[in-house]
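ok so I'm stuck.
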Amino acid sequence: MDLEKQPQKQPITPVEPKSESAVADPAVADPAGSLRASDADRDRIADILRDALAEGRLDAEEHGERIDAVLRAKTVGELEPLVRDLPAARPSRPEPEQSYAYGPDDSAAPADNLVAVFSSTTRKGRWRVGRRTNAFALFGNVEIDLTEAIFAQRLTTINATSIFGNVEIRVPENITLRGNGTGVFGNFEVRTLESADPEAPVVVVNGYSVFGNVEARPKRGKFIADLHDKMRKHLGH
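replied:
not stuck anymore, here's the structure
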């Protein structure tokens, strides 16, 4: 047998194992968690934490710790664990799908006046909210409950004055609440609330308290679910 005609065996080149970084690219392994967090992502998480604080799911200390973590977070993967044990969606909160049917803006309409002098005055239930309301308490108590009221206009202004008295204002959770006032040896507190619906009613509370209390805040569990339909019926459409 001619040994020169036998096929020569080719040397086997060893295959180097791929590096760990080549096998698992972080961007491919975890595309969602490694995504850089945007301001909108942080705002969404902060809103969930704010709702949890208002509902009593978090105490003030834990809420503060999680907000600090939100501000430090650089990726979406760092944000999500902060609300994993909280309801990220609010299915129980009804959101209107249509624009609100407000009536004509009558700037010349007289303001509603609620006065309590050594007495108590309450406005609650189903009532039509005017464009302006003046509340004055002198050694008395004024309560304004808007949770079942009908808003005939988008902007409602309440001017509250308390002297050795108390003015309490309660609004639904799905409207916008703003305020500006002063407390002189007293308390003036408006818990700011911003509705997700840009067409929702806006309530602005202004005024001051002297040795008294003015407080405006949302009433937990109260929503304007069908304001559009209520207004259509109220206006006869």
